[in-house]
Design brief:
single chain; 344 residues; alpha+beta; seven-stranded mixed sheet; two-stranded antiparallel sheet; 46% helix; globular
């Protein structure tokens, strides 16, 4: 029982870090009327999730909400209680602003229209009329072929091996991960915390190694210990020069600059023969592959990906003669690797 409570506290720390670090609220100041506290880049989904988590632990609703709604703070607390319960019961939980908006509308259907719309405005969520347009027009689901989506902890630039690969960590507090953590890893994480509390660092290091060998790691971020799973990511659809090739170092440095310290959204399509997740990667809404191609620091890997937009971005960089395209005939990385395998 005690071990379960320790693990629950361990996972709770992870959730608090995720919402505190990866999903920062953005305020607007230059406006005469109340503006949404959270912008699209801060993610309306994560903003509401953060406030629900805070409500669960403090029973407090956001201070600025009253500027957007007509009911009292006591009534607001009732809404958050209902929303918290509805969120927990959602299987799977809402992932997009449209899904969150529907959950809010359905959960608070018997409340005042002004309050529901004010709450949606506060988080920058779409209104019912907009939801109807979206449901019949732009798809809100993940792109076809995506096996799963994950959101990473802040990336360490030292975990970027080259211009088209990233090693990331994903918190095991997230639903998809929490159910698949091996029992011996969970136990080792709890025992490690106990050993460190007793200043038995030799034992703690021993348990650390066991956790790492299992593909996990305990990461200390802002004085919070988070049990996280390691994933190796291969950027889908591009092939950057190898580190020892011309522009290989530049490609790696550009990728580090893009992702270092950032939480990434990763859409995984498959696992390659090396055990890497082949994925599209987004950083603060920016498509990482697009940046690498437009800056002339990667080739469109047409043998494995025929997306027109990738070909277009490479063509634009070629036309401008930037990056590796400054050379009239740059060596293709897949041919370079083949030559090395054949001993040429």
């Amino acid at each position: 029982m005690l071990q379960a409570l320790n693990l629950q506290k361990f996972m709770g720390n992870a959730l608090r870090f995720l919402y505190g670090k990866c999903f920062q609220p953005a305020t607007t100041e230059d406006s005469d009327s109340p503006a949404p506290v959270y912008t699209a880049t801060a993610s309306a989904v994560s903003a509401l999730a953060h406030d629900l988590l805070n409500f669960e632990t403090t029973s407090l609703v956001p201070e600025g909400l009253s500027e957007h709604v007509v009911s009292s703070r006591k009534a607001q607390a009732k809404w958050y209680g209902k929303l918290l319960q509805a969120w927990k019961e959602s299987k799977p939980p809402p992932k997009t602003p449209e899904e969150v908006a529907r959950l809010v509308i359905q959960t608070l259907s018997r409340h005042k229209k002004e309050d529901v719309e004010g709450l949606l405005d506060y988080y920058g969520l779409p209104h019912p009329s907009i939801l109807e347009e979206i449901s019949t027009g732009v798809p809100t689901r993940l792109p076809g072929g995506v096996e799963f989506e994950m959101h990473t902890l802040p990336v360490d630039g030292n975990m970027v091996p080259d211009g088209d690969g990233i090693n990331v960590f994903v918190s095991t507090a997230l639903p998809r991960e929490s159910s698949s953590v091996p029992r011996d890893v969970r136990v080792a994480a709890v025992e490690r915390s106990k050993a460190r509390a007793k200043k038995n660092y030799a034992r703690a290091d021993e348990l650390d190694q066991k956790i790492i060998e299992s593909g996990y790691q305990v990461i200390n971020l802002q004085n919070e210990e988070i049990l996280a799973r390691k994933y190796r990511i291969r950027l889908r659809g591009i092939d950057a020069p190898e580190n020892s090739m011309s522009y290989g170092k530049e490609a790696k440095q550009e990728l580090i600059k893009l992702v270092h310290g950032k939480c990434l959204r990763v859409l995984v399509y498959e696992e390659d023969r090396y055990g890497r997740c082949v994925a599209d990667v987004y950083c603060n809404g920016i498509f990482v592959q697009e940046v690498m191609l437009k800056k002339g620091l990667a080739w469109h890997y047409v043998a494995y990906d025929q997306r027109i937009e990738l070909a277009t971005w490479e063509k634009e960089a070629r036309a401008k003669g930037i990056g590796l395209w400054a050379s009239p005939n740059p060596e293709k990385p897949w041919e370079w690797r083949k030559d090395r395998r054949q001993g040429k």
